[in-house]
Amino acid sequence: MDRLTTIAQKFAGARAVTELRAFGSGNINDTFLVTIADDLEPHFVLQRINTHVFQQPALVMQNMRIFTQHVCAKMQREPEQVARRWAVPRVLLTVDDRDHWVEPDGSYWRAISFIDGSETLDIIQDIAHGRAVGYALGRFHYLISDLDPTKLADTLVGFHITPQYLADYLQVLAAATPSDNREVNYCLDFVRSRQEWAQVLEKAKDDGKLPLRPIHGDPKVNNVLICTMTQQAIGMIDLDTVKPGLVHYDIGDCLRSGCNPLGEETPDWEQVRFDTPMCRAILDGYLSQARGFLSGDDYDYLFDAIRLIAFELGLRFFTDYLAGNVYFKVKYPTHNLDRALVQFGLTASIEAQEAEIRSIIEDLRR
Ligand code: GN1
Ligand code: MG
What we know:
Elements: H1 3-12, E1 17-22, E2 30-36, E3 43-49, H2 57-76, E4 91-92, E5 101-102, E6 108-113, E7 118-119, H3 127-144, H4 162-175, H5 182-192, H6 200-206, E8 213-215, E9 224-227, E10 233-236, E11 243-245, H7 247-258, H8 276-290, H9 296-300, H10 302-323, H11 335-352, H12 354-365
Helix pairs in contact: 3-7, 3-8, 4-10, 5-11, 7-8, 7-10, 8-12, 10-11
Residues 26, 218, 238, 240 line the site of magnesium ion (MG).
């Protein structure tokens, strides 16, 4: 038996592992879809947690448990919602009842249930898909809107704290070898001219305008489960970054991902545009679930959130390129530079359409 199958078998118990293949397109963890001899539940998802990024994986598992208990209890108290399917992935245990398995080399493995009849798509398909993605994030936030964020551990210190990413960037830049590449220079100028504004959400948080809430942390398009029969959103996966934060990080992340029809891996960075009709559809789907818990201040910072999280992801990719690709997985040496250019192109398009995006937000908040 090969090593991966042996690890999968720890979670499969007596049921034989019959197939195992790489799954999804994550930039951090390694993910596999496992097939086992079980008629009722023939698949599960096996993941190796990147412990360079998540240095305390036990806390990631603890957050997942707190999150799942809260959401399942809340869904049980709301029978009228049960009519529309919403699935929460379960953490699977090893034969000796542990929620993870550590290999002799220290690698950290865990398994979660696979939601049957669902799929995820890397790129937004159409307006209906956009509305479904927005609905999913709204439903997700609604279900945890009454979970005390202090119950969740901070599993990734500095995550989505833009001023911290800027400080890291300046440090990496100071140590980097100067280059005269046109695209690198574009990125350097792009960041330089936005440094002051990049404090916007953290400042609003410090000023008491935006509260800490439990968030998903990574609500991009391919983390929304779509039912293969109805095309409706039926859940959200990738719960590693569920932790205290601003809902603005999530809303910004969902829109930077959903309103970029070319996708974040496109080689055509100069063609990247922020799609405003899609922005309306996603926000409309989101607000169908989220209206009840958003304040006036929350709405006031939505535009900045959309602009900031696109910029921030560009900054994170660019920093990682300059640092020699130590955080995000890459397929070639300039992969993170190309990804940064896509996010900066998207940010520029958001800035160019500021008036229109603000008017969509004003329309929908009424
Ligand atoms: C990373 O690994 P993945 O693809 O789920 C990253 C997100 C980025 C995303 C960009 C913990 O997520 O913040 O938005 O790449 N996750 C972490 O695709 O840094
Ligand atoms: Mg993720």
